Amino acid sequence: MRHIGNIKKFGIPVVVALNAFASDTQAEQDVIKSASMEAGAFSVQVSNHHALGGAGALDLAGAVQQACSSPEKDFKFLYPLDLPIKSKIWTIAKEIYHASDVKYSEEAEKKIELYTKQGFDKLPMCMAKTQYSFSDNAKLKGAPTDFTISVDDVRASVGAGFLFPILGKMPTIPGLPTRPCFFDIDIDTETGDIVGLS
Which residues does UniProt assign to the signal peptide (predicted)? Predict the structure, then answer.
């Protein structure tokens, strides 16, 4: 329900994909469909793509297409882009996560100051945090409220057009090198050994 409410704050219709499993009962699916529609979903579609391939997602695709054409859509950011970085982070923490406070590490404070001086403070935020909770604590399940979010770092993806605060101890995938490693992998034709993997 929280996810549906959050997405609606952006002014777009919400399509819920209900990933069906063989062990699901019709009653379970009906409860999820009903609750999702009551929460304001535009559509709820059972999706069997993992069992049936593309054919199992046709209804879902049709619902997404309808939502994209809906007069209900009026996308907007959650905050004005000209707000300061911390104000944007606070808006997301309060409105999306339902946090009551945000704390910043020394590193995050330095980065915010740097990005502001560089003129990147007008970029939107893309928060990086655990997928297991609305908080930065993977053990805080459900839809918690009144907790403190910790911003450990803030990184810039200027080319992609956003800043991404890192909430809590969140591992990130390292960037790829400019020269892919596969250029150095080959087969030694004399021995048949693969070289360049170390």
Answer: 1-27
Task: Detail the DSSP E strand segments found in 22-143.
Answer: 43-47, 101-104
Q: Which domains, from first to last, does the chain contain? A: 1-69 (no CATH), 85-167 (3.10.410.10)
- Can you say how many angstroms the Cα of residue 148 is from the centroid of all Cα atoms in its chain? 19
- Gap between the Cα atoms of 148 and 93, Å rounded: 9
Place of tokens 């219709």: 13
pTM confidence score = 0.80
Q: What is the pLDDT of residues 146-183, one digit of tens each?
A: 999 999 999 999 999 999 999 988 777 766 566 777 78
**Strand partners for 16:** 44
